[in-house]
């Protein structure tokens, strides 16, 4: 009754059901894309190094905006190995 008085009779009901379109997943295409994204050109080995916080902060300040910590450390190792 209050709905009719306020003119809300047709506005407070449930909305009509809408059919959800189901998508098909191309598994082969997805796996290929994942391999391309996560593949590297060379085989890698993960190395973990515990570093004092002050040394880590100094390194991050030095390389800020230039390169990642990973790239910085790889360059240091490559340069050290090329000395000999």
Describe this structure in words.
The protein is an all-alpha fold and 84 residues long. It has helices spanning 2-6, 27-38, 53-63, 69-82. It has a domain at 47-84. The protein contains four helices and no strands. The longest helix is centred in the last third of the chain and has 14 residues, at 69-82. It is elongated. The mean pLDDT is 84.
Give the SSE map.
Blueprint: H1 2-6, H2 27-38, H3 53-63, H4 69-82
Features:
mainly alpha, 84 residues, elongated, 50% helix
Residue share in β-strands:
under 5%
Low-pLDDT ranges? none
Q: What is the strand tally? A: 0
> What structural class do you assign from the helix and strand content?
mainly alpha
From the alpha-carbon coordinates, what is the Rg to the nearest angstrom?
29 Å
Summarize the model shown.
The protein has four helices and no strands. The protein has helices at 2-6, 27-38, 53-63, 69-82.
